[in-house]
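In this supplementary section we document a worked example of the pipeline. Step one takes a protein sequence of length 364 as its only input; no multiple sequence alignment statistics are reported here. Step two produces a three-dimensional model, which step three serialises into structure tokens for compact storage. The input and output of this example are shown verbatim.
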Amino acid sequence: MPEASLSSPLPEGSIIGILGGGQLGRMTAIAAAELGYRCHVYAPEGDAPACDVAAFSTRADYDDGAALAGFAAAVDTVTSEFENVPAEAMEAIALNAPVSPGAAALRTAQHRIAEKTLARSLGIATPDFAPVNRASDITAPLNGMAHGAILKTCRLGYDGKGQASISTAAEAEAAFDGLKSDDCILEERIDFQAEASFLIARSADGRIAHFPATINAHKGGILSTSVAPADAETLPPPLLRAGQDAVEALARHLELVGVLAMESFITGSGLVFNEIAPRPHNSFHWTIEGAETSQFAQLVRAITGLPLGSTGAMGRWQMDNILGEDMDRLDAAMGEAGAFIHRYGKAAARPGRKMAHITRQISD
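The serialised model returned by step three reads:
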């Protein structure tokens, strides 16, 4: 079957399959239950908090053909909670169940060169970049990058992992060897004022809904705080429209059903594309309390054929990530009026691991 295409909404009680057992799957399953659906989570990992809130679960590897076939036969539609599910697994499931996002969208989002090449083809500004398969590939493009560069693995880099900063050619070999991959990308370092993220929902019939844009701050390469809606001083209306047009063009090109997030840098000359994710995004967790329809409910609506909900913000909100080293902040917020706490149900708190988030309304 192709990517999800529904002539009528799935009836109440239908089963949504979710590939991946992390916090995004967990919050999607909670939203699905509120809309009358049950979820079946497929995850290879033992610590899979999404399974705790799902009606059914399968623990198996993504290359287990029999398990994938059984999973597909047991559900009515399938989505993924993260973009690094093997595209081959999604293709296998698509033989027996509607899927969204499809394998083509996953392949694009899984590879940094593929996503930036697509963005450029649609007229979206990106950093200068070059493919790197060996350390000697770095020197020539680096010479043309005025602000230095970031060397990244093309696959699997997340939350600051799989990358190294390079300012001079002398640093190239050590940086390349440290990444332990021969499939890399050299990206020009961007002198940016802030990072903005954009989120769009798209239904099977092509209808779209934009969420208010979010302004993000990071620590150690990991998202720390998101504030939304973005203020007009940081993200002026022309840049807001440009970002929304860009993420819409990407969603339409990918024929995506579900939600698509795009991270962009705000610079003195406009927006510069960073990356996409065809799934709910950390920077839009504020929508659970702060938007008329959360990103998770909107994903469920899109893949089940329900009408897309209103995405209006109900005030201005701040979301703070709680990492393994921040658990004291979580404890302190438990008695705080107006603090909405979302624990992810993970068994072990480790430094850099996302354990929870806290959302607060900061203005009407």
